[in-house]
Amino acid sequence: MLRDKNLVPLSRQHQHALALCVRIDRATLANQSNLDAWQSEIEQHFRAEIGIHFAAEEQVLFPAARQFADLNPVVEQLLHDHAWLRARFAEAEARKMSAEELRAFARRLSSHIRTEERTLFENLQELVGEVEMTRLGQRLDEALQGAEQACILPTATRKET
Fold first, then answer.
1. Structural class in CATH, domain 8-143
2. In terms of CB atoms within 10 Å, which end of the chain has fewer, N or C?
3. pLDDT tens digits for range 144-157
C-alpha cells in the first residue's frame, strides 16, 4: 500500500534506521575498536533522530492508534520494543555491547520497524479518515522538528567489510 503523506516523515526515518541495521548485519565485528565505533554510531542515531522519533510515536501516533481496539496489542508490543531498544541504546552509549548484542539489536530494530510499517501504518491508513490523518500528520511534524533531516554517515574509522 502506498504510504500516506502524513506518515512519510516516520517512514523516511525508518529507512535511515533500516540502513543502519543492514550495515551492522553485513559488518565484520572483529575487535573492540570496531565495536566501539559501531556503538558510537548507534548513539549518534539515537540522539539525532531515533530518540525524537520514539517520542513522537509515543506521544502522537500510538494514542491515535489506541482509539482502535484491534491495534492495542500492536501498540503494546511496539512500546515494549521501545523500552528494550532504549536499554540497548544506553548500552551502546556506555560501550557495553558485544558483537552478538549488536546483531541482536539490529535484528530487533529491523523487526520493530517492519511491524510499524506493515501492521500499524497500514491499518491506520485504512481506519483513520483523511481529515484526522492530516491532523495527525501536523502533530507528527511538530513532534519531529528536533530530528536531523539527513541520514548519518558511517564513522570514518570503521571498516564495514
1. mainly alpha
2. C
3. 998 875 444 454 44
